[in-house]
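Reviewers of the previous submission asked for a worked example of the structure-prediction workflow described in the proposal, so we include one complete record here. The input consisted solely of the amino acid sequence. No template or homolog information was supplied to the procedure at any stage.
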Amino acid sequence: MKNNRHKALATPPRRSAAGLTELETEIMLVLWEQGESTVAQVREHLARSRPLAHTTVITMLDRMCDKGVVRRVDRHSKAKSYKFVLKREKVADRLLRRVRKQFFEGSSASMFAHLLRSGEVDQAELDEIRRLLDQSGPGSDLTGKAGHRPHSGL
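From that input alone, the workflow returned the following structure tokens.
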């Protein structure tokens, strides 16, 4: 009985706008940066900010496989390897759409103005933004690739 009470009081994991928990997002960042990785490699990267047991990383990656966020890569090796399924740009698009809708009433201009006022944009980034705005126009493609949207290095 005592055990059930503790489960009811446990704090649910925080989810990002993309539906990933904080730890799942950290794991995705490792996979996006490193590509296909073993559990040990993921754990090593996470240890810089969050030391975790090897079994915890395996459990998280297996749950992420069940969600369809990552997939296990079958190798004839004892070490389990995983690769991302969701692309970074797709997750970033989801996050930005939700933030724009929930915090800025759907206004990209308001969201951008907030970012500028926050002091988070340095001069080099501001120069790049000006360059992109100068290139923009109806039907323009800021990436130089047809059908692609800019993703600011994501």
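DSSP finds seven helices and three strands in the chain. We consider this example representative of the routine output the project will generate in years two and three.
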